[in-house]
Specification:
alpha/beta; Ubiquitin-like (UB roll); 2 domains; three-stranded mixed beta sheet; 7 helices; 34% helix; elongated
């Protein structure tokens, strides 16, 4: 009785495996008529797009190719239906900014760690990342979130320079610099907004002393 039961279980498992393999081969051989690509970040890097485009009729190769060539990809899911519709879901690691080091841009994660892979200009444009220069910030998220609250300022920030691991300089377009204090950065940003200084001519705005605003024209 036991041997018969084992045989039936083994037979059922074999049938399931054969059905799975048959369905997989069938779906793989179906030409892609419609492709939908989505990501967890809302943008697709140029490298990701190029690999998908070049292998659109070889969907089974895409996950391995993406993870091999785009190190900041965490996972890739590919689904294909028998009507020729394919869905690719790309999960990027949580990149919050870019860090410039020795002339190259590296992905900066929310915990302050960076990845040893260079970001291309196309990646920067699609990701719309702030660029940190100088020392690598231990926690880049708070300063990023503060700046993003002030749209007029955020749109003018070219790079964020971390000074001696203590405070930040905001390097704006047109070679203008805002020197932020070590503490209570938000109050400094409020002063910038209320003063209307961003619409005026200046080369340096020194806010390191909470009690005063020094403007160099």
């Amino acid at each position: 009785m036991k041997s018969k039961l084992k045989f039936l279980i083994l037979f059922a498992v074999t049938l399931i495996m054969l059905a799975y393999l048959a369905a997989r081969i069938l779906v793989t051989d179906i030409p892609v008529k419609q492709l939908k690509v989505s990501t967890n970040t809302g943008h697709i890097s140029n490298t990701t797009r190029d690999i998908i485009t070049a292998n659109i009729q070889n969907l089974h190769k895409i996950p391995a190719l993406l993870q091999e060539n785009v190190p900041y990809i965490e996972n890739v899911i590919v689904l294909q239906s028998q009507d020729g519709t394919a869905v690719i879901r790309v999960f990027y690691k949580n990149i919050v900014a870019a860090w410039e080091y020795q002339g190259f841009l590296f992905p900066l994660l929310e915990n302050g760690e960076h990845m040893m892979v260079r970001l291309t200009q196309g990646d920067m444009e699609t990701g719309n990342y702030f660029i940190f220069t100088g020392a690598k910030p231990k926690n880049p998220v708070p300063i990023i979130e503060l700046i993003q609250r002030y749209t007029l300022l955020a749109n003018q920030v070219r790079t964020i320079q971390y000074i001696e691991g203590r405070r930040f300089n905001l390097n704006l377009v047109n070679n203008r610099v805002i020197m932020l204090p070590e503490n209570d950065i938000e109050s400094a940003l409020v002063r910038i907004r209320e003063s209307g200084i961003l619409s005026k001519n200046f080369t340096r705005l020194d806010l390191r002393n909470p009690g005063r605003m020094l403007v160099t024209r």
